[in-house]
Design brief:
Length: about 210
């Protein structure tokens, strides 16, 4: 009888340890990964778009590399570097009737520093995030006519929501992000001011 009890306790202990390992994977302090998503440009003219100007926008791709550093139970720091394609077109007509068309920052390298605030610490954890985003254009057009100097480094504040799903070997984290540009990027004299915002739906994979 004593042997049966000991064997039973041993099996129960092994099963409990196995279950805990499966259901509660060890949380890494630092994770690395990549992301991919869709990006929608949102060009804003605070004073209102002049009658002689027109803006069209659309969806484009963004992808990058990411990391996440756990600071506390409900807080993490997430640096990101993403290649961002912006689909937009700005058309401006001058006093002579000549029409000029250009893209505002068609491709940029976005360097972000996001702080994630989690609600709960289970397998599925929603979170809010906020942080700065430095947008560096990949290519700037020359300042000499007829090319329009339409791109320059921009700074934005990112904020949004997401949820983190923990699996055995990786984390899956979709997030909806709004990037609010704080620098006037207009370098066209006929356009008084122009701010580059965008909306992104991004899927992060971390392991």
């Amino acid at each position: 009888m004593k042997k049966v009890v000991l064997v039973s306790l041993f099996i129960t202990s092994c099963f409990t340890s196995y279950t805990q390992t499966e259901e509660t994977p060890v949380e890494k302090k630092v994770k690395f990964g990549f992301n991919i998503g869709a990006n929608y440009s949102n060009l804003v003219v605070p004073s209102g778009l002049p009658l002689y100007a027109n803006i069209s926008e659309g969806l484009a791709l963004r992808l990058g590399i990411i990391s996440e550093i756990n600071i506390a139970k409900f807080l993490s720091f997430s640096p990101k570097a993403e290649l961002c394609f912006n689909k937009n077109n700005v058309t401006v007509m001058d006093g002579t009737g000549a029409i000029t068309s250009f893209q505002e920052m068609p491709v940029s390298l976005d360097i972000m520093a996001h702080f994630n605030f989690f609600k709960g610490n289970g397998k599925l954890s929603p979170y809010l995030f906020i942080g700065p985003n430095l947008k560096k254009p990949i290519e700037e057009k020359p300042l000499t006519p007829p090319a329009i100097p339409n791109t320059k480094t921009n700074l934005a504040i990112d904020f949004g929501i997401g949820f983190d799903r923990t699996f055995s070997h990786f984390n899956f984290a979709p997030e909806l992000r709004y990037s609010y540009g704080v620098i006037d990027v207009s370098r066209q004299s006929l356009l008084p001011s122009l701010y580059h915002h965008n909306i992104s739906l991004v899927i992060n994979f971390l392991g």
